[in-house]
Amino acid sequence: MPDNRARADGARVLADLNALRAIGAYKTGVHKPTLSEPHMRSLQWLATRLPEAQLTATIDGIGNVFGTSTKSGPKLLAGSHLESQNYAGWLDGPLGVVYALEAARVLNSDPDVKGAVEVAAWCDEEGHFGSFLGSRSYVGGVTEAEIDAARDRTSGRAMRPA
């Protein structure tokens, strides 16, 4: 009996990675500091693709992007970040986000899979404004005062207005 289940699409994964690489491209890598124009375009790119995985996209107040499912059953949250260190490698962060997106595309469309894969892109995991602010905010580990005090380590720009 043939196996007709959906499978990961390597060409689609590579196309997604290259699309994210093109946003903020710098020499052989990328330059996407947290909440910069290229980083914000990357967040929007992800938000527009989450429905392909049967996920609803939201961006929270600190800049995290979430793809959530209404499917019943257990949920697996997977992802990484889309900003980069200054003038950095193009796969650090996006690889985890795109792999999570692809897993969600495949598994969330399979009627035999109970539950769903959800996707997260954490904001400021590279520490431009602080220390893991996106993931720490998700678990309630960031105060309003900490957000108010956060400044970009390179430019001095305040996080809240950014």
Query: Percent of residues in beta strands?
Result: 15-25%
Structural class: alpha+beta
Taken from the alpha-carbon principal axes, the silhouette is: globular
Order of helices and strands: HEEHEEEHEHH
- Count the beta strands: 6
N-to-C CA distance: 55 Å
Overall number of structural domains: 1
Which architecture would the CATH scheme give at its second level? Answer: 3-Layer(aba) Sandwich
The CATH superfamily title: Zn peptidases
CA radius of gyration is 16 Å
Q: What's the overall average pLDDT, rounded?
A: 94
- Quote the CATH topology: Aminopeptidase
Q: Taking strands numbered 1, 2, ... along the chain, how are they ordered across the largest sheet?
A: 3-4-6-5
Helix content: 25-40%
pLDDT under 50 segments (min length 5)? none
Main β-sheet, in a few words? Answer: 4 strands, mixed
Count of alpha and pi helical runs: 5
CATH class: Alpha Beta
Outline of the structure:
By secondary structure, this protein is of the alpha+beta class. It has a single domain, classed as 3-Layer(aba) Sandwich (Aminopeptidase). The chain has helices spanning 10-22, 37-49, 94-108, 133-138, 144-149, and strands spanning 25-26, 29-30, 56-59, 65-68, 75-81, 116-122.
